[in-house]
Structure formats: C-alpha cells, structure tokens
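Quick one before lunch.
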Amino acid sequence: MAFHSPFAQDHPMHLHGHDFWVLGSGYGEFDSSNPNSLTLVDAPRRDVAMMPASGYLVIAIKTNNPGAWLMHCHIAWHTSEGFAVQILERES
Ligand SMILES: [Cu+2]
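Model of the copper (II) ion complex:
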C-alpha cells in the first residue's frame, strides 16, 4: 500500500490489526515505476511509521487477520479531519 500527502507536515501513520513492513518513504510522490527504490529485504517492521511532510509511505502487510482495520494518522485531530482509511480484509 502506498500513501501520499501533499501537506507540509509529518504524519505518524498507524495500522490496526497488523504490524507492517516499511518498504519506503520519502519526499514528493512515490514513483511506482521504480520498484528498486523499495526495501524488500529486512525492511523495518512497525505498527507506526512516519510519513514525511509532503511525502509518501509504502508499506506491506501479511493478510492473515480478517477484519475491518483502520489505518490513520496518529495525530488525533488529523484523523478527526478525515485522514483515515478502513481496510477490509477477507479470509480468502
Ligand atoms: Cu497527520
């Protein structure tokens, strides 16, 4: 999953229901045509990771916990303003 924010403030992104691997982060927009920019071996495993200001965050999860999981900025008023997404994960 890749997330991007145009706003000039860091965002500590948190996912419920899973730890995740941080494959990449940086300033500007993620260039999905350049997968070599991602860390695919020994990527750091977190439940919160900082998305840089005006930047992106790329994470991977293992889909092994079916449910409805919230991913959101951990700055509460950012979540209140709508900086959150619900991820629906099925068993299949
Ligand atoms: Cu935020």
